[in-house]
C-alpha cells in the first residue's frame, strides 16, 4: 500500500460523469488521498488500474459494458498483478449486492447517499486494511 506520509492513490469509477467528478473532487481535496484516474465503466477501470496501480478503487456496481462486480473480480483475482482494494458504491440498498461485492473481492461497500465524511472514513478504513 502506501506509507503514512504518502497519499493513497485512488481510481474513481462511475458511469455518470457528474457523480464521478463529485466523488473525485471530495477525495482529491484530502491530503491523504490523490485521485490518479477516473473511468466510466468496468472495462476502462481494469485497463486504467493496470496502468496506474491505484491503492484503492472506488467502484460503482451498475455500469454499461462491464459492471463493477465483474471489474472487481478481475482486479482482485489471482491472475491480476497489482491488487488494489475496492470500495464498492451503489444507489441500491440490496443485500444481494453487498454479498456479491464481497464475494467478488471488494474490501467495503457504501451507499451513494452517504455523507462525504462517511465516504472518506470508508476509504481510510479500506486503505488501512
From TrEMBL:
<dbReference type="GO" id="GO:0000160">
    <property type="term" value="P:phosphorelay signal transduction system"/>
</dbReference>
<keyword id="KW-0805">Transcription regulation</keyword>
<keyword id="KW-0597">Phosphoprotein</keyword>
<keyword id="KW-0238">DNA-binding</keyword>
<feature type="modified residue" description="4-aspartylphosphate">
    <location>
        <position position="60"/>
    </location>
</feature>
<dbReference type="GO" id="GO:0003677">
    <property type="term" value="F:DNA binding"/>
</dbReference>
<dbReference type="InterPro" id="IPR001789">
    <property type="entry name" value="Sig_transdc_resp-reg_receiver"/>
</dbReference>
<dbReference type="InterPro" id="IPR011006">
    <property type="entry name" value="CheY-like_superfamily"/>
</dbReference>
<dbReference type="InterPro" id="IPR058245">
    <property type="entry name" value="NreC/VraR/RcsB-like_REC"/>
</dbReference>
<dbReference type="Pfam" id="PF00072">
    <property type="entry name" value="Response_reg"/>
</dbReference>
<feature type="domain" description="Response regulatory">
    <location>
        <begin position="9"/>
        <end position="127"/>
    </location>
</feature>
<dbReference type="InterPro" id="IPR039420">
    <property type="entry name" value="WalR-like"/>
</dbReference>
<keyword id="KW-0804">Transcription</keyword>
<protein>
    <submittedName>
        <fullName>Response regulator transcription factor</fullName>
    </submittedName>
</protein>
Amino acid at each position: 500500500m502506501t506509507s503514512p506520509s504518502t497519499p493513497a492513490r485512488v481510481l474513481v469509477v462511475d458511469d455518470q460523469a457528474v457523480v464521478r467528478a463529485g466523488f473525485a473532487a471530495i477525495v482529491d481535496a484530502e491530503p491523504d488521498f490523490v485521485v490518479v484516474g477516473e473511468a466510466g465503466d468496468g472495462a476502462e477501470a481494469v485497463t486504467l488500474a493496470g496502468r496506474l496501480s491505484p491503492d484503492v478503487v472506488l467502484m460503482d456496481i451498475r455500469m454499461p459494458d462491464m459492471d463493477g462486480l465483474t471489474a472487481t473480480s478481475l482486479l482482485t483475482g489471482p491472475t491480476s498483478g497489482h491488487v488494489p482494494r475496492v470500495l464498492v458504491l451503489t444507489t441500491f440498498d440490496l443485500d444481494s449486492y453487498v454479498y456479491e461485492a464481497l464475494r467478488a473481492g471488494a474490501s467495503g461497500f457504501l451507499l451513494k447517499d452517504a455523507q462525504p465524511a462517511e465516504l472518506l472514513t470508508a476509504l481510510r478504513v479500506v486503505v488501512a486494511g
